[in-house]
Structure formats: structure tokens, C-alpha cells
Design goal:
heterodimer, A: 154 residues, alpha+beta, Ferric Hydroxamate Uptake Protein, Chain A, domain 1, five-stranded mixed sheet, three-stranded antiparallel sheet, 28% helix, elongated, B: 190 residues, Arp2/3 complex 21 kDa subunit ARPC3, 7 helices, 0% strand
């Protein structure tokens, strides 16, 4: 077979095999990705999301959809400045231009409404998976630097 | 290469029977490894050495038995599809064997190995495509879903066959050529 002498023909055949394998893998992972995204889209929760700037201004974004709290914040159109802390998740430093203040000991925390009142969120906002009908408030408030205590929202 | 038309019928039959038996034995031995089989290589080599007709017969016969006595179950439509698809290895082996009949296998080993590897990959791609289409039609599954969900198995099948064809074809052909010469059957690869 004369073409065996021509290394370019062999290279072309190998590239054809690679192209088929790459196309197959791409199709598979694209299908898996779109399938997962559509499933996640269907499982998004609808919540009441609020923000309290600690100066008497409180806005509610009722009917916000999201998979995680961070997802819902972005869906509500908030500008969020957050820093990732590995597996612990995102640490929110500023929302809508209102930054935390270490000097004044004022920070952003999120609170979940329960039968007993407001309960402070126990995880990073991107790690918290929302449930339908939850009421969550982001609260900009003073934290006692000695005890790390924050008074719940009123 | 043995010219099949010069072979006595008894030898042809025994050759087909021995290859089918070897392939079946290897298939059952490798039953736990999904899509990792040396059967395709054996069918291809048979076709390469003894022509497309014998190669295709071996492919069809293997699946005629393995498709019925299969721990994964028996579905007539899939059975027919696999029998016909497996014969493609034998037919392609026969065509390639004819084209390479003037070549010396001991020279151009690297190029030949690459060629065999690529041929193994492409034939397996066609085989997987045909059997996945048959699967989709049989179970009334959307074709695109059947093809995409079959990709992980197809990739394993194609990659393993590319490696097997690339690495094992030349040593296997060389050994069979020597053995055949010893038995007075000239495989004229020189």
C-alpha cells in the first residue's frame, strides 16, 4: 500500500480518529451538562429575599428564584462582592456598594425567618440550598468585637 | 496469505470453528469487562489472513452463539444487528489483507501498527454506531439519546480496540504466518 509510505496520510487517519473521539466526548459532556442544568432550573426554589442596610432601609424581593442563596441574590440583581474561602464557600464583603467596616465592626450577615423569629444563617450563602417559601434577610449590622454577637433584625 | 480458494473445505471449516471457539472462550472469560473484547481483533485477523468471506463468517457465527447464550440477555433485533456488524471486521480485514498482500510485515512495523490501530478504532466506531441505532429502533428510544448515552461504552470499546489492533495485530499475524508455513500453507507475506 503506497499510502503507508506517506506519513501524512497516516497522520490524517490518526487525526480523524482523534476528531471522532473528541466529538463523541464533547457530545456526551454537553448533553450531560445541559440535562443537569435543565433539571436544576426546575428544582429552583422561590423565596422572599430582603436586604436591610442597617439605617432603617429595608427592601424586599419577594418571589426570587434560586438554587442557593447566592444564586437568588444575583437573580435579584444585587451587586455582591464576595471572597471565596475554599470549601467553606463565599464570604460576603459588600452588597450593592455597601461594604463591611472593620473599624466600625459592621458586617453583612444573613438571617432566616423561623417560628421563633430570626435565626442567623449557619453557612456561606453559596453553600445554602434554598427551600420553597423561605424568608431570608441580609442584614448590615454591628457585631460585638469581643463576643462576636450580633443582634437579630427587628 | 493463504488463498482461500486453494484451501480444502475441511480446512476452511476447521479454521472457522477454531477461531469461533477461541473468540467465544475469550468473550466469556472477559464477560465482566464491558466492551473490552479480543473477539473483534480475532475476526479482523481471520479476515486479513483468509479473506473477507471467512472473516465475515467467523464474525457472524460468533454472535450467532454469543448473542443467544449471553448473560446480559437475548434480543432478536440486537442479535441480528451485532451479527451483521461484527462481520464488518472480517470484511475490512479481508480487504486490507488483500491490499497489503505484497508487504513484508516485519518492515514498516510502526506505520502498520498505527494503521491497524486506526482501522480498529474506525471499524469499532461503525460497529457501535450500527448497534446503537439498532438498540434505539428496537426499544423505541430517541436515536440521539441512544447514541449519546452509549458514548462512554463506545469510547472504551473504540480505545481498547485501537490499542489491541495497534499492538497485537502484527505479532499475531507473524505467528500465524509462521505456523501456517510450518503446516505447509504458505502465507505469502514476503
Amino acid at each position: 500500500m503506497a499510502f503507508l509510505r506517506n506519513k501524512w496520510v497516516l497522520a490524517l487517519v490518526c487525526i480523524l480518529c482523534w476528531a471522532i473521539a473528541a466529538s463523541l466526548l464533547f457530545s456526551y459532556y454537553y448533553y450531560q451538562y445541559t440535562d443537569l442544568m435543565s433539571r436544576l432550573e426546575k428544582s429552583k426554589a422561590v423565596i422572599n429575599l430582603g436586604i436591610d442596610y442597617g439605617n432603617g432601609t429595608r427592601h424586599w424581593f419577594n418571589g426570587t428564584m434560586g438554587l442557593t442563596l447566592y444564586d437568588a441574590m444575583l437573580k435579584a440583581g444585587w451587586r455582591v462582592d464576595a471572597e471565596p474561602y475554599g470549601t467553606m464557600g463565599l464570604y460576603v464583603k459588600a452588597i450593592n456598594g455597601v461594604e463591611q467596616s472593620i473599624e466600625q465592626s459592621r458586617y453583612w450577615t444573613w438571617w432566616l425567618w423561623t417560628n421563633l423569629g430570626w435565626a442567623q444563617g449557619g453557612s456561606a450563602c453559596d453553600k445554602y440550598v434554598l427551600s420553597n417559601g423561605e424568608t431570608i434577610l441580609w442584614y448590615y449590622s454591628y457585631m460585638d468585637p469581643k463576643t462576636f454577637e450580633i443582634k437579630p433584625p427587628s | 496469505m493463504d488463498n482461500p480458494s486453494n484451501m480444502p473445505n475441511s480446512r476452511k471449516v476447521s479454521l472457522i470453528a477454531v477461531t469461533v471457539a477461541a473468540s467465544l472462550g475469550s468473550n466469556y472469560a472477559l464477560i465482566g469487562f464491558a466492551n473490552l473484547k479480543i473477539m473483534d481483533l480475532l475476526v479482523f485477523i481471520t479476515g486479513f489472513l483468509y479473506g473477507s468471506l471467512i472473516g465475515a463468517s467467523v464474525g457472524i457465527l460468533i454472535w450467532a452463539i454469543y448473542g443467544v447464550l449471553n448473560p446480559y440477555g437475548f434480543v432478536p433485533q440486537i442479535w441480528v444487528a451485532t451479527m451483521l456488524s461484527e462481520s464488518v471486521y472480517g470484511i475490512a480485514g479481508g480487504i486490507l489483507g488483500k491490499s497489503l498482500s505484497t508487504m513484508d510485515l516485519s518492515s514498516d512495523k510502526t506505520q502498520l501498527s498505527i494503521l491497524f490501530g486506526a482501522v480498529g478504532f474506525l471499524l469499532t466506531f461503525l460497529y457501535d454506531l450500527a448497534t446503537n441505532i439498532a438498540f434505539a429502533l428496537t426499544f423505541n428510544i430517541p436515536l440521539i439519546v441512544a447514541l449519546i448515552t452509549g458514548i462512554p461504552f463506545a469510547i472504551i470499546h473504540q480505545a481498547s480496540n485501537a490499542v489491541l489492533f495497534g499492538i497485537c495485530s502484527i505479532p499475531l499475524l507473524t505467528v500465524l504466518e509462521r505456523a501456517s508455513r510450518r503446516w505447509g500453507h504458505g502465507i505469502s507475506k514476503k
